[in-house]
Amino acid sequence: MFIQTDQLHPKTYDRLWDGEGTIKSTRVLENLFGSAIKVIAINRIPPGASIGRHRHENEEDCYFCLSGKGIVSDNGVEHPFVPGSLQITRHGETQAIRNSGDEDLVVFVFLIAAMPPNK
Length: 119
Fold this sequence. Notes:
By secondary structure, the chain is mostly beta strands. The chain has strands at 11-14, 22-30, 37-45, 50-55, 59-67, 70-74, 77-81, 86-89, 94-99, 105-113. The chain has a single domain (11-113), classed as Jelly Rolls (Sandwich). The chain is globular, with a radius of gyration of 14 Å.
């Protein structure tokens, strides 16, 4: 499978998960049939905007910072989010992110289906 990403158009999301501002998300891939991959996207979070705290159930979400500067919340614990940072949210965990810089925070997002851990 090959996808030419420069031909994709971003979707806009206002106050995503009760966050602030408008996020632009270029969905490179969504719900690939027969695959655990649910979403691959590049999100652009403008200065002052955020994605509010949310929980993932039966899926895992990865945020990788491509450019910009932000703060990511990993289960309520905040960490600086700068290029090269990776944050992973597993089944049952929470995450949030906000742009704390003066340019767009560009985040590579990879969301996959996951099975709950064995108890």
